[in-house]
User: Which sequence fits this backbone?
């Protein structure tokens, strides 16, 4: 028992009581101070943390119950014990109802007060210990910025930690928004390369020729506009990690170039004749099924095997719903800090909506919904209305019964498009996917944007 | 006035009871504190008794008043003054106390009133002698600056009831002994 951590404040208008009680408690090794009246006590409570307040009931001016009420407001974790020379059942009941820890009649039996103080100190130590353990447990549930309670994700974290220690190429698979880049960064930060650069490239964002120069750099005059020599991402990541996102989208030529680099750890800048050696750990990611792509000849099988050394499959959010509350807590913490807002949590209704939603855009979509909610919320607790989630989708689903995932995704995209009045950029942001993916999905599900002259915002026709 | 014990005693034990001095009891207290603290102890005998310590409303004696009186009346050369009494002691906030001490000060007092098995202070009562010796050492420990110890067998553990007194041993635990050595050798812990 750490007695020096226990701060006790004795509040009594009688000096002799203050002196004798504080002296008696000081013999136990507690840090004891005294206050002659309520206002002085409140001032002390406002400026320091107290474990226990022993407060006399009858004091001129501010009485013990008023002190109790104020302390419960300022420091609810402090145990307040009311002392009185005149015990009445009514005041005892009032004190307990106002949140007093206990009620003592003066003079006290030494054993009674001694046991009570010990009990409070033990309880407070247990509360502190629980908080520490909860934090430790929280750390157990996380791998850097990833959090999860699900056993499947825990085994992913174990695999990722092991992969981090190795030099092996890692292939992260999973739908858009499942946290592939977050996992890649976590692996990098947990690896011996943590002090070196982490360079991320989205292979789908650039046309083939530009991507080649982006990855390998180019020599001066290599092509029109190449006015100076420029180093590529491979060189920029030397000693560190190169994260190649959307690897399934690269052309056959680039697949071959990449295969060579992976085999030789050497490459040529575009227009260059001198081989450049690099020490780079590759983490590739894609939302495509590379086994299928390589079986059907769209992705080089040899490159697939080179990349597929340590495959890690991130499950979609709908398959790990139990993590949604934990993710919400983490995201609110991050977003609240970014927006300088204190958000305490979400209402039960909002939580129910968030947990039951299917999240086609996965964590990114969840993050965007919460970000929007923080902007529009007026209180510290996010309400269902703040989420701006299309209610009709949920209602419709209830009516029509079980649907296929594709049908749910189609309906959800249609609903969000309707919600944004056909604004593709906003829809993509809300869904947590990029515009290209949204266009692809709209094409797939035959969802059309409303014509500018039309009042009908989105035409939905089943494929 | 007579003085018994070693030539340079540090702790003076003074019978302040209502009746005649139970010499055997007081001497055994002296021997015990001498043994526990490794310092010379002497029995101080003087006919003076604390005045203004009795509270007629409570029918008890204020231990705090006795401490004040001890500081005024005790021999100036005493490093620690321990009053031993058969009067029931109290501090305003508690129904009774077995004793009281100035934490890190000179004076301490211990009472046999609630330690005697049948409420009778008898010189030949061995249980009372053992309890009184423990509580006397406890209060002297406070006057050296020791606070309560969580080890229930240590003499510095809190005695809120007779059971606590009987459970504890008569000496300092290892931690309290180490702390006592530090406190004893500090400038403030030396003769005041």
Assistant:
């Amino acid at each position: 028992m750490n007695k020096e951590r226990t701060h006790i404040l004795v509040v009594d208008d009688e000096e002799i009581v203050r002196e004798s009680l504080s002296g008696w408690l000081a013999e136990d090794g507690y840090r004891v101070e005294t206050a002659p009246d309520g206002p002085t006590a409140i001032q002390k409570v406002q400026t320091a943390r107290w474990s226990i307040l022993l407060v006399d009931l009858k004091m001129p001016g501010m009485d013990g119950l008023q002190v109790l009420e104020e302390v419960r407001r300022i420091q609810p974790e402090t145990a307040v014990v009311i002392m009185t020379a005149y015990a009445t059942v009514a005041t005892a009941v009032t004190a307990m109802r106002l949140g007093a820890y206990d009620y003592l009649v003066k003079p006290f039996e030494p054993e009674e007060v001694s046991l009570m103080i010990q009990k409070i100190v033990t309880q407070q130590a247990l509360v502190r210990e629980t908080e520490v353990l909860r934090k430790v447990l929280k750390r157990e549930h996380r791998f850097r910025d990833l959090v999860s309670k699900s056993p499947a994700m825990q085994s992913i974290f174990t695999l990722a930690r092991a992969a981090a220690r190795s030099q092996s190429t890692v292939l992260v698979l999973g739908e858009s928004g499942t946290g592939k880049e977050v996992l890649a960064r976590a692996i990098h930060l947990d690896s011996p390369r943590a002090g070196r650069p982490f360079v991320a490239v989205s292979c789908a964002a650039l046309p083939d020729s530009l991507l080649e120069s982006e990855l390998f750099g180019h020599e001066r005059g290599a092509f029109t506009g190449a006015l100076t020599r420029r180093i590529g991402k491979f060189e920029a990541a030397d000693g560190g990690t190169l994260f190649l996102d959307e690897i399934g989208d690269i052309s056959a030529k680039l697949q071959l170039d990449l295969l060579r680099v992976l085999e030789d750890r050497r490459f040529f800048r575009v227009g260059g004749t001198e081989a450049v050696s690099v020490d780079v750990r590759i983490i590739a990611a894609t939302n495509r099924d590379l086994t299928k792509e390589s079986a059907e000849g769209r992705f080089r099988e040899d490159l697939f095997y080179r990349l597929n050394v340590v495959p890690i499959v991130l499950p979609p959010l709908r398959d790990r719903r139990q993590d949604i509350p934990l993710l919400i807590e983490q995201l609110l913490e991050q977003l609240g800090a970014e927006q300088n807002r204190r958000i305490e949590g979400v209402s039960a209704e909002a939580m129910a909506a968030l947990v039951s939603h299917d999240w086609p855009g996965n964590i990114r979509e969840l993050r965007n919904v919460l970000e929007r909610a923080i902007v529009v919320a007026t209180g510290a607790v996010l309400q269902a209305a703040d989420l701006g989630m299309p209610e009709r989708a949920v209602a419709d689903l209830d009516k029509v019964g079980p649907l296929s995932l594709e049908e749910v995704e189609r309906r959800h995209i249609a609903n969000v498009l309707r919600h944004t009045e056909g604004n593709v950029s906003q829809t993509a942001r809300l869904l947590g996917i990029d515009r290209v993916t949204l266009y692809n999905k709209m094409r797939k599900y035959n969802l059309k944007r409303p014509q500018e002259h039309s009042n009908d915002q989105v035409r939905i026709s089943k494929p | 006035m007579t003085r018994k014990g070693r030539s340079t005693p540090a702790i003076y034990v003074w019978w302040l009871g209502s009746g005649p001095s139970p010499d055997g009891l007081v001497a055994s207290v002296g021997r015990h504190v001498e043994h526990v603290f490794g310092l010379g102890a002497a029995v101080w005998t003087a006919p003076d008794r604390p005045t203004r310590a009795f509270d007629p409303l409570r029918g008890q004696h204020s231990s705090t008043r006795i401490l004040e009186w001890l500081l005024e009346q005790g021999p100036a050369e005493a490093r620690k003054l321990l009053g031993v009494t058969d009067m029931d002691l109290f501090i305003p906030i508690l129904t009774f106390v077995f004793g009281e001490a100035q934490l890190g000060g000179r004076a301490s007092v211990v009472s046999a009133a609630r330690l005697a098995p049948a409420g009778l202070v008898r010189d030949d009562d061995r249980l009372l002698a053992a309890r009184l010796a423990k509580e006397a050492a406890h209060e002297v420990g406070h006057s050296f600056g020791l606070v309560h110890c969580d080890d229930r067998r240590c003499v510095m553990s809190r005695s809120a009831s007779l059971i606590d007194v009987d459970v504890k041993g008569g000496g300092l635990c290892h931690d309290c002994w180490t702390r006592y050595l530090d406190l004893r050798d500090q400038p403030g812990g030396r003769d005041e």
Notes: Confidence is low (pLDDT under 50) at residues 392-396, 451-463 of chain A.
